[in-house]
Amino acid sequence: MAACGLVAGLTACVLTPTGDPIITSSSPVNSIVAQEPAQAPSSEIREHERLIEAYGGVYSDPKVERTVARVVGRLVAASDDPSRSYRITILNSPAINAFALPTGHLYITRGLLALASDRSEVAAVIAHEMAHVTAQHAVARQRRAQAIAVANRVVSNMVRDSEAAQQARETTQLSLARFSQDQELEADSVGVRTLAAAGFDPFAASRFLSKMARYAQLQSVSAGSKGLDFLSSHPSTPSRIELARRAARQFGAPGIGEQERDAYLNSLDGMLYGDDPREGYVRGRQYLHAALGIGFTVPPGFVLKNTPEAVLATDGDRTALRFDGVALPEGMSLTDYLRSGWVKGLIEDSVREETINGMPAASASAIAEGWSFRIGVVTAGSRVYRFIFATSRPSGRFDTSFEETFGSFSRLSRTERNGLKPLRVRVVTVQPSDTVESLSARMQGVASGEQRNLFEVLNGIDADNPLVPGELVKIVAD
């Protein structure tokens, strides 16, 4: 984080060489100690930098940083090892994620902070990650993985029966998955205990796990994804929720501990939500980039996802899309670029020149490793933009989807570019006349059919927790 907040009597921040705050319970209070600790190992710095790059950089917001620092300080003071130091980084990613390195470096995304509804829910996530650090789970997992890799090599080299070898590999893989599940459950239990010791609501862990399950279901329905990964490193969410509830009941009935909802929501007001402007915007089926001045639209049924490396889309069944931009070698035509070797399995006679909304373009088809591809490249300004459609089951709809998307690529007008603003979390007070329908209708940048569902998930609203006049709620707006 670019700045760190203090909690009188609880924490201070020590700035590291990478600029992140170290939260300790024993640091001098009411001051920021600007000392330089010993240089961190180069491997640790590289891992830290790699994670920051993968998650869109560091998110800087003084209000959010202060509230996270306050939470971490309370947890450290109440933990089994209050002398241990932790460094906390808020990642500039809309993904719902948090994780920790064995060194005590904790990471939490702004997407997760936007999903949480109070400080106790954020504390539940951080306490869980702190438990992984104190239990040295990452070290144990690495050692177990190394042992299993050796075992798999032995099996592959010594067992001639391919079916027996496959069964042995699956057995060791399941063993590793179960080992990780046990770690997660242990971290849940320790995290709930730390929550209660810090004075937070111990039921926040089960509450936030339930919220994440609802959010995952909402995303799954939107994307049309199917199936489950049986070798997931996390236990099933229902079992985690129930175990977290049992752990919380050891400290009392629901209603104990602090949630600090209003203070937390006020700290989120104005926080960036969804895509970072530097990576463009997803607005329903449209992708728009103000700085580059470009945009395109995917067909109905497709769901867009923006990442730092590329824009991705899928129809949830047969077809996937990747869109990105690269520099075109000087003097090379677009058709020659398609033939330059980066397209595997190119069908030579499919390459053709064309024009897309007044811009030079070219397209081609390819077949490789059981997949069919349609590729389109178009020049806008100094860059060439690439559309790559892929399917394992080609059809007329596949070709139509490619043609519609490629043909929709256009330059944005000055008015369109100026009208693009990032989405932010806006905190509003529920009025007596407000309803879930009226408030969710104020959500922007969300497909009309998903506004209510997202509003309810973001605010934890359901039959047991209805909308209450006078309380604060989150909406998404520019």
By DSSP, the count of extended strands is: 18
Which regions are unreliable across 5 or more consecutive residues at pLDDT < 50? 1-39, 137-162, 168-179, 224-234
Choose one word for the global shape: globular
Q: Mean of residue pLDDT?
A: 80
How many DSSP helices? 14
Share of residues in strands: 15-25%
Secondary structure: helix percent: 25-40%
Q: Distance N terminus to C terminus?
A: 24 Å
Structural class: alpha+beta
Keywords summarizing the entry:
five-stranded mixed sheet; 14 helices; 3 domains; Protein Transport Mog1p, Chain A; disordered N terminus; globular; alpha+beta; Membrane-bound Lytic Murein Transglycosylase D, Chain A; 478 residues; single chain; seven-stranded antiparallel sheet
Commentary on this structure:
The structure is a single chain. The protein has three domains: 46-260, no CATH class; 280-419, 3-Layer(aba) Sandwich (Protein Transport Mog1p, Chain A); 424-477, Roll (Membrane-bound Lytic Murein Transglycosylase D, Chain A). With 478 residues, it is of the alpha+beta class. It has helices at 42-54, 62-78, 110-115, 119-134, 137-158, 162-197, 204-223, 237-249, 261-268, 334-338, 396-408, 414-419, 436-440, 451-458, and strands at residues 12-15, 21-24, 86-91, 98-100, 105-109, 281-283, 286-289, 294-297, 303-306, 311-314, 319-327, 352-356, 359-368, 371-380, 383-391, 410-411, 424-429, 472-477. The strands form four sheets. It has a seven-stranded antiparallel sheet with strand order 9-10-11-15-14-13-12. The chain has a five-stranded mixed sheet with strand order 1-2-3-5-4. The chain has a four-stranded antiparallel sheet with strand order 6-7-8-16. It contains 14 helices and 18 strands. The two termini are 24 Å apart. It is globular.
